Amino acid sequence: xxxxxxxxxxxxxxxxxxxxxxxxxxxxxTREDGQKVKGVVTFTENYQAAAWFDAETGAxxxxxxxxxxxxxxxxxxxxxFHTKDTSLVGKAxxxxxxxxxxxxxxxxxxxxxxxRVDAGQPGxxxxxxxxxxxxxxxxxxxRDTNRPRKTMKILSGTRFQWIAYNAETKQFxxxxxxxxxxxxxxYTENIEFFSRDDxxxxxxxxxxxxxxxxxxxxxxxxxxxxxxxxxxxxxx
Length: 236
Prior knowledge:
This protein is mainly β. It folds into two domains: 19-118, Beta Barrel (Lipocalin), CATH 2.40.128; 127-234, Lipocalin (Beta Barrel), CATH 2.40.128.490. Helix content is 5%, strand content 58%. The chain is built from one helix and 17 strands. The strands form two sheets. An eight-stranded antiparallel barrel has the order 1-2-3-4-5-6-7-8. An eight-stranded antiparallel β-barrel has the order 9-11-12-13-14-15-16-17. Strand 1 and strand 2 (36-43) form a beta hairpin. The longest helix has 12 residues, at 2-13. The protein is globular and about 55 Å long.
């Protein structure tokens, strides 16, 4: 009887089963100047990336991301890139979060609730990936994924974001993201923001993809129309 009462109490306070942020979340916020901004954050098992862009035009505003962990309701993040404040790169930042059911989440005290987009399904490529090679002139050129200069791509079940950065120098080179699908060996990106060129917003790009021994082979044409063949290795 005592055990039943303890379990019932735990259920009523919401502490028995921890909810997971893994997947993608999005929200709309209104800034002081009246600008409508869309925020998106994607969590994989160990890494996360967040981006903000104009909700109407897709113009890029800011991004940050890196390692994360959740203990109780306290989330701790260690950014590897941070366009708004590079001094935070490499430093642990903790804050409390709360859930409303399984489909709403926010930082405690924030006016904005993020809505769950997915929980890591249905796409075949959910997870964090590092570019580990390219094929040029028929030959694979490998890239050391342990170096500070990285190109990372984070995908939930339906959303993607890539980021190029240097975790040691805190330099940010670029990012882009949106939604994606994986159907019959075709990986299609629908671009919602692109820091290097806003004119790419709204484009849909189709690529061939294949998973080989935990690597993702990605080929087709870039947003500029140039042929490409990239190899990505899982980071999680």
